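Q: Please design a sequence for this.
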């Protein structure tokens, strides 16, 4: 079956949620279209002295609730369709957790693995300068953050370049920065921490009567989000029984030793290494394991119409953006498998980015406990709001989350007199 593009996937979900909300054509259009699209071929210098040109994007979806917010990814497959879908989902994500920001996303079509550290710095500066000179970014306009293949260090270069363009300090123009230049405590692990708060809160309902040691988990993706999530689960006594990366998976006899797997990944480049108590499995086999929870923390579109029927988990938690297609959603719902959607499950990252922006604007630095306590309250409240709306509409949690996010944006548009 031909795969939907990420934006087609978003539109299909939008239509389903739009039907629940009885949207007018004008309201539907406001969610379908982005307010502003910046698209430019940018140029940077390679170490050889040669100039390289790459396609760069920034999509600003909806600002009814506040300035645009969303990451910048460097990836060879980045394209306008993908960036548009991610910007639209960012609008909804900000509103699921009820922060006063809108949705944006950036992308540069390049494989950074082939670049040296100094080439990455020059690329990062070129991207941000192009956007700054075009008036795209700003502390009250559009506040980027890290995403796939972009790091706190890259945020540092981008901030520095921005301040050169505007001629003054403005740390709140970008989040996910290193602590020393205005980053927030707790930001580096906030996506997984937020996902964990949502998971524990929902587990009380969906795994009532079970203790953590009885709950088995398989995790696809052992990068920033997946490995950190594995660590948090493990430290709270949950039984992580399998993890994978792009080269394959490790299936552990009883439960995985997460720090041993991190060492294996560091030393051998992958978790898929056979040893006592560990057998190697493929990613497709991991998706079909009989576990309580399947965490998707790698790529979009990995659970689709052709393999959703094989999933045997009771719950799927989407730490990645868009890992379950619309067609797969229908199949999973019929099988009674609960899908905790990305715009709720991975919203911890943007929530702590929002905290960072607030701290920068007031010149304050919050304690780590304070950040995590606030995050926990936000994530639990959002999870409950999503569950309530899903029950009200007899729908999936994804539709509950879409309806929640869309309702808040519609209300903000109405209050601004926008039709
Ligand atoms: P990452 O690059 O650090 O990790 C990705 C992991 O997926 C790696 O272990 C990689 O080996 C694995 N992988 C790649 N291709 C795979 C394949 N074909 N099969 C199985 N595994 C594969 O990236 P990340 O930052 O952890 O992000 C992962 C996902 O989570 C992305 O969708 C990202 O947008 C989303 N996300 C991340 C954050 C964050 O804070 N890191 C926040 C929100 C959303």
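A: Design:
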């Amino acid at each position: 079956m031909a795969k939907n593009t990420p934006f087609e996937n978003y539109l299909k979900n939008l239509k389903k949620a739009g039907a629940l909300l009885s949207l007018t054509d004008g309201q539907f259009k406001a969610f379908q279209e982005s307010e502003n699209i910046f698209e430019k071929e940018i140029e940077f210098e390679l170490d050889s002295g040669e100039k390289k040109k790459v396609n760069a994007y920034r999509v600003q979806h909806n600002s009814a609730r506040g300035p645009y917010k969303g990451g910048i990814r460097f990836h060879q497959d980045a394209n306008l369709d993908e960036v548009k879908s991610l910007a639209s989902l960012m609008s909804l994500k900000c509103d699921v957790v009820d922060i006063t920001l809108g949705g944006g996303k950036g992308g540069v079509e390049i494989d950074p693995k082939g670049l040296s550290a100094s080439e990455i710095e020059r690329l990062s500066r070129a991207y941000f300068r192009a956007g700054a000179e075009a008036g795209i970014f700003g502390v009250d306009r559009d506040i980027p953050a890290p995403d796939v293949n972009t790091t706190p260090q890259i945020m540092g270069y981008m901030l520095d370049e921005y301040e050169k363009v505007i001629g003054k300090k403005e740390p709140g123009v970008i989040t996910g920065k290193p602590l020393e230049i205005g980053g927030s405590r707790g930001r580096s692990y906030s996506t997984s921490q937020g996902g964990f708060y949502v998971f524990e809160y929902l587990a009380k309902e969906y795994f009532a009567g079970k203790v953590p040691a009885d709950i088995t988990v398989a995790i696809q993706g052992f990068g920033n989000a997946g490995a950190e999530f594995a660590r948090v689960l493990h430290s709270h006594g949950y039984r992580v029984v399998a993890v994978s990366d792009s080269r394959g998976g490790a299936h552990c006899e009883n439960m995985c030793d997460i720090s041993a797997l991190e060492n294996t990944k560091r030393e051998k480049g992958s978790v898929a290494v056979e040893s006592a108590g560990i057998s190697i499995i493929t990613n497709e086999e991991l998706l079909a394991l009989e576990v309580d929870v399947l965490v998707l923390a790698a790529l979009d579109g990995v659970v689709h119409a052709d393999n959703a029927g094989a999933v045997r988990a009771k719950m799927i938690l989407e730490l990645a953006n868009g890992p379950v297609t619309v067609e797969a959603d229908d199949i999973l719902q019929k099988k009674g498998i609960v899908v905790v959607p990305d715009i709720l499950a991975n919203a911890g990252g943007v929530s702590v980015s929002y905290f960072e922006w607030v701290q920068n604007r007031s010149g304050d630095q919050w304690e780590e406990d304070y950040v995590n306590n606030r995050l926990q309250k936000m994530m639990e409240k959002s999870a409950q709001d999503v569950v309530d709306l899903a029950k009200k509409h007899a729908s999936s949690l994804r539709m509950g989350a879409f309806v929640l996010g869309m309702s808040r944006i519609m209300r903000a548009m109405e209050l601004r007199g926008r039709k």
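Q: Thanks. Anything notable?
A: The radius of gyration is 21 Å. The CA atoms of residues 57 and 211 lie 46 Å apart.
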